[in-house]
Design a protein that fits this description.
Low-confidence stretches: none
Number of strands: 4
Structural class: alpha+beta
Bound molecules: guanosine-5'-diphosphate
Largest sheet: 4 strands, antiparallel
Radius of gyration: 15 Å
Helix content: 40-55%
Strand order of the largest sheet: 2-3-1-4
Distance between the termini: 14 Å
Length: 148
């Protein structure tokens, strides 16, 4: 019982998006297949067409960046897939599977290399740290359970 509790304590949840470019290109199925093959458990999932306001709230940390208006407009151009993904070390593991922000610089075999078209239209989003994961999960999945 002690060991079981210990293993569970290593579990982590991260927040992921299949962005509108990838949904539009019909890459949703292949990306979800890769997520499951990598061992993540999908704890929540929703297809949702974000408003510009929702995208602005989600990306509020980037509001001073020169690409903020372009990014939030892009994120509301069509439906995206919002997900809560669970695994051990989920935040780092999902960032690794996605690859670098710029698909041109992403490693071979990563999702952004395979499905991303540009630094902005880069197919997927993933939380970069525990505090941002908590904010992002709560933003779209209020009331989600972190621990079982
Ligand atoms: P991420 O954590 O890898 O998603 O990268 P960032 O937090 O730095 O940026 C958030 C998102 O903004 C990225 O995923 C891109 O969609 C977009 N983005 C980042 N850098 C640029 C840029 O230089 N130009 C444009 N147009 N978009 C960018």
């Amino acid at each position: 019982a002690h060991l079981l509790a210990y293993n569970r304590s290593l579990m982590e949840m991260t927040f992921a998006i299949i962005k509108p470019d990838a949904v539009r290109a019909r890459h949703t199925g292949r990306i979800i297949e890769r997520i499951e093959e990598a061992g993540f458990t999908i704890r929540a999932m929703q297809l949702r067409h974000l408003t510009v306001k929702e995208a602005e709230g989600f990306y509020a940390v980037h509001k001073e960046r020169p690409f903020f208006a372009s990014l939030t407009t892009f994120m509301s151009t069509g439906p995206c897939i919002l997900m809560a993904l669970e695994s051990e070390d989920a935040i780092k593991k999902w960032r690794g599977l996605m690859g670098a922000t710029d698909p041109a610089k992403a490693d071979a075999g990563t999702l952004r290399k395979e499905f991303g078209a540009s630094i902005e239209n880069n197919a997927t989003h993933g939380s970069d740290a525990p505090d941002t994961a908590a904010f992002e999960l709560g933003y779209f999945f209020p009331g989600i359970q972190f621990a079982r």
